[in-house]
Amino acid sequence: xxxxxxxxxxxxxxxCGFRPFFLAAAVSAAGLIALWGAYLSTLLGHGLPxxxxxxxxxxxxxxxxxxxxxxxAVAGFALTAIPEFTGTAGVAARPVRTLxxxxxxxxxxxxxxxxxxxxxxxxxxxxxLGLVAGLVALLAPRLIxxxxxxxxxxxxxxxxxxxLIGGFYLDxxxxxxxxxxLHAAIGLLMILIVLALSRISMRIVNAALExxxxxxxxxxxxxxxxxxxxxxxxxxxxxxxxxxxxxxxWLALAAAAALCHLQSDWHVGRALFRRWPLMLFLVYxxxxxxxxxxxxxxxxxxxxxxxGRHLLTVGxxxxxxxxxxxxxxxxxxxxxxxxxxxxxxxxxxxxxxxxMRAATxxxxxxxxxxxxxxxxxxxVVFAVWLWHMAPLLAGPRADGGAGCEGIIEAES
Length: 412
Fold this sequence. Notes:
It contains 13 helices and no strands. It is mostly helical.
């Protein structure tokens, strides 16, 4: 019998690495945007305080969404998917709990850095680096020892995360603006999304083809994926080294074109318009549109850069994490995908939230109204997800399993 004390290693919360981290990601998504929306709201005097941190409130906002919300989702996905990809045993409860504690310490250290100064920043930086180093230590042997070594790109992505975190905290400790490291982290997250979706999509799209009695012959082809990754990386490096230059604009347009080219793999007929493939496909649509707007703005000198960046973050990042939370969160709890209406409604709502946030850049747009609506929609989506999914992640598996394995079929 599993203990019900959440602090106990035998509690269902620690059955698999995704459970505490997915819960933390969803709570962060709703809570952080609620606080940020209150900070921006003119109805509350345009000044409800957020934690004072190096770089100011906008750095706090970006840091917590990237190194808080997104990194929690990445950690949960990596701890669950990489053992599955490599055919190795799941990660034990004790190291998962240690990694989760480091994530919490990172939040506390950064939030209190404006009050406690350098010591809190050092603690926050070490906690974030410890989290990523722990992931590498746990997962690198599995990836390296895998005979085919098809998934080593995840290891390089985690190593890149460590570099970006280190750069951010070094700049913050030296009194420089650390925002450039957050912008680079957005590019790294887009690359990670492309890598993850290429694996997830083959299961989801082929399942949709089988449901239509069609041959499940969909493949996420490496050349198109690799081209998109190279273009995203090139733009990200240019933005880091020479922000605002037209060269970055052309590279962003190249990334948008490569992502559109990547979408051609998804042209599998009517199966694409089934709910699960379509929701995943929209991630690439938002990503391509985001880089397209960024590229157009930099090349033409016009508006649209902020709109493009928010299509990447609110849109592609938010929707992809929502989909991973729903797909991996269900299947590795021993349950089939949830076919109820709330899941696609949530995806459509996140899409609308991203478009509204991007629309604030339009001339004459009702900025305050659009910001408020976009924030509210985002919060509602992740709050509804918590309502449906938190009991599953904090409870025992429905199929009697005791780990990270997928759905265990009942013996006939």
